[in-house]
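Subject: sequence -> structure tokens, single chain

Hey, anyone have a minute? Need the predicted structure for the following. Not urgent.
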Amino acid sequence: MNVAVTGSNGLIGRTLVRALRLDGHGVIAVPRDQTDIGGADAIVHLAGAPIAVRWTARRKREMLESRVQGTRRIVEAIARQERAPRVLVCASAIGFYGDRGNEELTEESGPGSDFLAQVVREWEDAARAARVRSVQLRFGIVLSPHGGALAKMLPAFRMWVGGRLGSGAQWMSWIGLHDLVRAIRFAIDSNEMSGAVNAVAPQPVTNAEFTATLGRVLRRPAVMPVPAMALHALFGEMAGLTMLASQRVKPARLERAGFRFEYPALEGALRHELSG
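Reply:
Had a minute. Here:
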């Protein structure tokens, strides 16, 4: 099988490409702002401007346009193919749901109303326009020491100054990078799967639980909380919609389709990801 991958130089893309090649699959690494997908049996679209930065009007425009316009270009490239790929697996995000407190969220739950939820809605709409089977994987917090939220947290914890963010009561829906790559490949291979799919582990935790577990794994205390006011001062709107937002998301469709997580609990996932 030949798989075209956008965002192949990113954290998830690099790991996916390596896994596909180890299993003997061909990989077409699609460069940024290009759509050369000729000969692909499947497309995995991961490209998009970073979100974990302070949001300015310009940054917000880049976040939206890179996802929506980038996905539209991929969909248009699919339409031009004489032999279309079987499936488009497009990255999405649990930011679709907005800040929902203790509410348990599945793919049947409605969208939020904030900026990030708007980005995800338009992003997914663009992917659904493909004339092939389309899966929109709503990624949770991806655990890896090599990038993303966990990588940003590790230095503070290793210096004995880690702790919860804000009240710590906000829910964090996470997934280990190992299981996320498995979920992407499952979506490629599962011919009956389409539409939005939550790519999160089945055991979300509060931020207080997350930081306590990370401290235990690293053998460091998690006793230095970061006040919400400080996060807002440092990161502005981004802090409220990412670091402090509460999203208690369940992988209902993945589990119904038969996907089995190798690391469903946080401590096991952290130990696995930090052992590499």
